Amino acid sequence: MSRLLPVFGLAILLAMGHAPNALAASEGDEANAKVEAERLQKDKDQRKKDKKFNRDITYRHAIGPDVLPLGPFTISLYIDGRLTEHRLKVALQAIDTAKKSELEAAKTQLYGIVYPLCLKLFEKGRPSSSDILAFKAQVQKNVSTRFKDSLKGVYIESVL
What we know:
alpha+beta, 22% strand
């Protein structure tokens, strides 16, 4: 038995010597997994930012540089006894840069024209596509009545 004691001691020392390495290897794998997960999340976030950036550029390019954004308008209404909240961004495209400057100078008047129409758009809940088309036509008509030959188009940037 006394001859086996040094052998058992040596076996225990060897096992203890390798155990921290195995433990360190598993901790290293966990650290690598965390770093990899963080890198993947950063890549995913960057792709989202790129997609949004490209969408904004495409939008601006599609309707031109003579765009006057209005809003976002926040509409809170009680419909059937329940509070509903909506957000709407509208963009008006002027005929040229001079007309855009004229419209921008009268932005508060434009808010006075567009905001009541936004309220009317959401008074029955979420609007349908025909409601949105009617809204755009009404905005076009009302703005053109006030500002002769200055509006080329009405666009809705987002409806939330």
